[in-house]
Batch of 2 targets.
Target 1
Amino acid sequence: MNPKEQHGNFSPEKDAPKYADLLQCMRCGFCLPTCPTFALTGRERSSPRGRVALARAVAEGTFEFTSAIREEAFFCLDCRACTSACPSGVRAGELMEICRTQAHQQQPQPKWQTACRDMILQKMLTDPKHLERAMLPARLYQKLGLQWLLRNSRILKLGPQWLDKATAMLPPLGQPLRQQLPELTPARGKKRGRVAFFLGCVMSLMYAEVSQQTVRILSHQGFDVLTPPAQKCCGAPHLSEGDRQTTRQLAIHNLELFLALDVDAIVTDCAGCGSALKDYEELLEDQQDTHKLQLFRNKIKDISEFLSETGLRTEELLPIEQAVTYHEPCHLCHAQGISRQPRELIRAIPGIELREMKEASWCCGSAATWGLKFDAASQQVLDRKLANIAATDADLLVTANPGCQLQLDWGIREAGMAQKVIHLTELLGRATP
Ligand code: SF4
Ligand code: SF4
């Protein structure tokens, strides 16, 4: 049998890990010291090697798709640190992501949970207008001071832990940026090109000022910036929850929309979105023309990658006399291999002192909804990160992904630490006249 087609106990109706990918693991164990869930538990089954072995046993039909596999598929942070360390290029995180698709079929959750999940993933997140409407109660809740009231009355402590944490993490919400950004922001000064901006859902709803800065920086650097209002979610939340089919629908929409624009690059300031957009090539390999997929893939650039490739104009940058440390988002450094570029941009700002933290590329414990589902484990992962941040004694903590920013900002506040957490383009925006 063609190893690509070996399903064993995986359901052939859903996406399943390719057997050839599972065979790549030679069980060397180089990945073990890089895995946060192995560090937490010391359990082989919670390590990349153990997870791949479980999936391989299912593919070979020697093991049923049990609740243990379901648990490990969801307990994996999909941080991809193991892939960076693996000499065979095994992608344990992505394999676990695919196993989540199987989990919904083989180990279904109660009906009400499935209905809630489908409503959020397939109705709310597939249409930016629905998502923006769904956030209105949260905006009202903040505007009326209810967030402050509930947090201070400690009523939320009586409910589930995740609700208390989610409420505390919520930054001040304003009008979604999608409704404010013009379709064309013209280049300033000598024009160098034309780019499209991919505005992520979380960036639009929770970090509007950051993405506003991103567009301003691109314009200031000499690029026309097109922001098509019809763009939709990149599909990263769906991948994370094992709904690959909806990601494919979103991918086809975004692919057609952005490829119709005459642009040099499609830039994003969200590491999670960038990683998902780059994954379209593989997700759609059986459905779309290869040339088209490669064209799209080659245009996707994280803002730091783009500015590094095109060369940052530094002559007008204003000095910032502060010490900063940099936390690497997993979906930037491990998933996209972008580590050097954000540091180069930070160092390009006059007056800045970059103080490297220990384990800068170790996960912060956010990982989409992982930090809410596994709040005790997430706190342990976060504590390790906070200790490394504190040891730098930096004034600012810079990162480049909204999930990390939410988690670190909350963690720093809860721990009573002094650092302010900012996105890379917020920092660059401060230096841009
Ligand atoms: S996943 Fe890679 S690093 Fe880990 S045991 Fe397998 S081959 Fe070795
Ligand atoms: S993706 Fe992260 S959590 Fe998952 S197995 Fe790899 S290192 Fe461990």
Target 2
Amino acid sequence: MTKSNDLKQFWTRGNLHLRVREAMIEANLIDKKLEIEDLFPIDQYHARGIAATVDLGKRMPISKGNKILDIGCGLGGPARYYAKKFECFITGIDITPSFIELGNEFNQLTSMSNKIDLKVGNGEILELEDNTFDGAYSQHVTMNVAQRDRFFSEAYRVLKKGSFFAFTEHGLGPLGDPIFPLPWADSESMSYLLPPEETISILKKIGFTDIEIIKTGDKYMSGYEKLVNKTNDTIPPTLGIHVIGGPSMIERSKNSLKSIKEKRTLPFEVLCKK
Ligand SMILES: C[S@@+](CC[C@H](N)C(=O)[O-])C[C@H]1O[C@@H](n2cnc3c(N)ncnc32)[C@H](O)[C@@H]1O
């Protein structure tokens, strides 16, 4: 329980609503109807932003009308992008209540509430029926998950036979021990990285098949470089993931970039089937 409270505090970082409101006022995005694209700079909560969401979308076989699950949906940015692009329905769950509240507000502001339902939940114990979804994805979440086998078994349980599961994460690199604090953890007490081969063997044991893995380290290094350079500018951008991640986001991003360069971490993307 303490672990999940630590995670909620880590991800919320004080008064999230106030930080977002102030940034949106400055960006002139208050009291008007928004397009989902207006929110991309703050609602895609991972280093490569919308580019990573678009890349993952190119690999996922989503059809119009499908029911898709987003595990660790954050502020719902990826869910809004996929729901609009593929005309599918998305259920998103996340352990951080402030992200879910804000994500549902963003759904209303962008008129996406009829396509997306975001709820507080833990990927290790999904409160969802067996064999429900046509596909599931989890973008940059599992680094916080101690019980990987439980997390993946839960995803497997709620998926229909023949459906897909996709996820992205930072695995443990061959030279080990990342440099903290990182975008997903202030210390090793919140970070559970595994070498990619171990993660793949867990997936196989659970029953997932057709496992395809792509290493994304180069893309992440250039994503972090852009992020770090942008936030180093004398006038930082009004909207950006520093609004959600707070001032320490720059230091945490620099450490993540260094960790990839030094082969301490190894970002990758997986697509597999139930
Ligand atoms: C790096 S953010 C990614 C958010 C979102 N997937 C995106 O790409 O914009 C990681 C998210 O994982 C969530 N998370 C961590 N552990 C979780 C768990 N066991 N169950 C559900 N969500 C979790 C955090 O609350 C946070 O929103």
